[in-house]
Specification:
Elements (H helix, E strand, L loop, with lengths): L1 E6 L21 H16 L6 E4 L3 H14 L5 E3 L9 H11 L5 E6 L3 H10 L14 E6 L8 E7 L1 H9 L1
Parallel strand pairs: 1-4, 2-3, 2-4
Antiparallel strand pairs: 1-5, 5-6
Helix pairs in contact: 1-2, 1-5
Amino acid sequence: MNLYVLRHAEAVPRGTPGYRHDSDRPLTKDGVNTMRRAAKGMRRLKLDFDLILSSPYVRARRTAEIAAEVLGAQKKLKFSEHLASDGDSRKLVAELNRDYAGREDVLLVGHEPHLSQLICVLIGCRSATVLTLKKGGLCKLSVDSVRFGPCAHLDWLLTPRQLVHIGKA
């Protein structure tokens, strides 16, 4: 399985008036624009997902929707509470195995530090501080069998700037 991990694009800052709950914070205009350009880079890389699984939080949901729109994968978009910023990685792995076994290319869309911690668990890092996904950043993991623990290889990690550049090429 190829497991792709995408952090949501730039969102309005925490504590912004009008957004009572952290889960309600939307992407900024720049976040939307950058994500569209980054998704074009994903398309240029010929990424094609069997499943796009996203946090239900507004900023992650919108990030996933933009990627799905640009890649023509709207019907492949689903949501998981286990990808929320306070999500449970063990339960996410169980959900992937239970509900989405056999999928070859899966995109997970969520939040920091949850995503970096998940990546580190899957590739066997000793510390989650080894890597950090930038807002709109994407990484690719190769996984023979998804389990909570070392089971993956880090193939690449791209910043949003790199994705945008790929989309322009």
